Amino acid sequence: MASLVVAGLMGCATDMWKTPDYFSEKYESLEPEIRRVALVTYLSPPEIEIVDLGFTRGQGAAGGAMAGATSALRSLGSCSGAYCGAVFLLLLPVFTVGGAIVGVVSGVDADMLAEAEANANHMLNSAYLQTELLERVKNYGHDNTELEFVRMSFADPKAMVDTPDYSALLEDSIDAVLEVELLRISLKYSLEMEAKVRFISAHTGTILSDSQFKFHSEHHKLDEWIENGAAPLTEAIQRGLRIIADDLVDENFLLFYPPEPKEIGPQKAAKTSKKIDDSSSVSVPHYVLSPIYPVLESCFFCGEFPFSRPHSTENRLGFVEVNSVQPILRWERFPRDYDLIDTEGRDHQITDVRYDLRVFDKAEMAKERKFLVPAQLVYGVRDITKAYHKIETGLNMCGEYFWTVRARFKLDGRVRVTEWAGDYRRVWQHPLHLRHRQQHYWWTPGRPILYSPEWFYYPFKTPCDSTSKKALESENSTPAVDDF
Questions:
Q1: Domain covering 19-44+127-221 in this structure, CATH number
Q2: CA-CA distance, 369 to 339, in Å (whole number)?
Q3: Rounded Cα–Cα distance for residues 216 and 219 (Å)
Q4: Distance between CA atoms of 415 and 293, rounded to whole angstroms?
Q5: 97-109, pLDDT tens digit by residue?
Q6: Where in the chain is the domain with CATH 2.60.40.10?
Q7: Under a CB-based contact definition with an 8 Å cutoff, are residues 372 and 310 in contact?
Q8: Is 421:294 a contact under the CB 8 Å cutoff?
């Protein structure tokens, strides 16, 4: 037993993550100034990891359909062994998104399966996923930065080498290049996607950043992934593309991390304490905005026998009930005192503060039914001017949701954003760590903990009966002053 504990601690210690040595402010120090960014990709399919999904065969109609598909593909010589049919399943959402509709139903004949496989391979060969990811980067960059993002009319794989040379693009007034390549898609219990991103100066050829971004979905069984024409799997792939695109733009151009209050010097220590709402039992990190309403409530025994209350993430936050299906969500104001000071004690100028808010519905984990995580975005609004917002579209009664907020502002004249708010209490839960999936082992070496930053967003629950809803609506009126 002692040896296991020591091994676990060693795994934890030797695999600790390191914060990337680049952030959004790095590109701003370059001369000449970066204004126009080219987007380049390989026009080639990502690697598809073949995994054994046979553990769900025979479970209901979907399991029988999968077994039938496996048999048909084997008869065509398309696959063999325990992994047969996995590729067909994983490629299904690709040609569904592309416009071809293929249903996985019992009794599908070999010709139909062969046609479906051909359609899927065609979509991959046309690099649909690569160009779709690039388009999402372009749109998100256009909407959230002051830079111009340009999709190149060509993509030369020879340029994406260890020592890149994009000097020819200077004739088109291109200052820098973002190479974005979707490397891998894997489906086990969860969908995983991985992309490689390099940010390169066209003037000097300097690689400003070089990293891999990963997406890790909620867990589902096979019959859940392929229900409704594989809609859950299709949605997860689209969500993964969106999240990777958002993350790589945020990290290279937008993210702002204030110094920890303890790091900015004793001369200003009195100004830098992070105010936490007294009614909350949870304190979130200094680099995100704290929730004021609803509060965060730890629920250590949720989901454990004999209790049955659902909880979110490893931190076990309970779903605190709000007072309406259109609640007013509130958070601390930005900037805080320590946001205005850099690590050397100099003052920042922060102006034009706005807030972005998102609300997500839930997904249940297949292996942990009381463990809930955010899934689809159901409500989003930008450019909020106050530190509160009333949900304008009514949510479902007795529904469990997640919400997050961030500040958008100008720092010394440059557009910046804070991290999307969440309960990132532990070192390995830092959003930078989770986005890049630097593995962290806890007690058992070789067993990585894989979460997504979205899983740590703030949970809440809407009222379950109309009587309590009406009685509480008067308490949910818009605040007269912005004092949050």
A1: 3.40.50.10610
A2: 39
A3: 9
A4: 27
A5: 333 323 333 333 4
A6: 261-422+457-476
A7: yes
A8: no
